[in-house]
Amino acid sequence: DAERLVLPGVGTFGAAMEAVDADALRRRNERDAPTRAVSVGIQIKARGSEESPRVPGHGVLPCEVTRFPRDVRVPQMGWNRVAYAFAYFANSFRFTEAPAGWEAQWSDHGGPFVASLRRGRVWGCQFHPELSGRYGARLLEEWLAC
Q1: 19-23, 34-38, 120-124: least confidently modelled range
Q2: Which residues make Cβ contacts (< 8 Å) with residue 140, sequence separation at least 6?
Q3: Which partner from 44, 60, 93, 143 sits 20 to 30 angstroms from 119, CA to CA?
């Protein structure tokens, strides 16, 4: 029932799913309540993840979270380009497809992956906006204004 909700980006897929009320998140999405999901916070909105294969995800995003290829540094730690700016990432898993009906921005680390998703007032990003300088601050300000 919170006016705004931030799903933080620390932890594993399985632990994050244990810590949230999936029905409450589903209701928030249905009513387009302002929700900001960061890193694993956006990943738990998927059907599932290679990180915790036996744990079902929230299912709002009809896709799976996969590990980066074995031939790139994992976790991806540091700055990477998102659209026209740079953002700070700390992740080992990613989306390789953007669900229909969601606005996506992309980045690249061993191949293209979804850096952020937005539909209405529900925003999610694989990077950490709180660590992403002016770009991240601007995104947070935009979300607070929606």
Answers
A1: 19-23
A2: 36, 129, 130
A3: 93
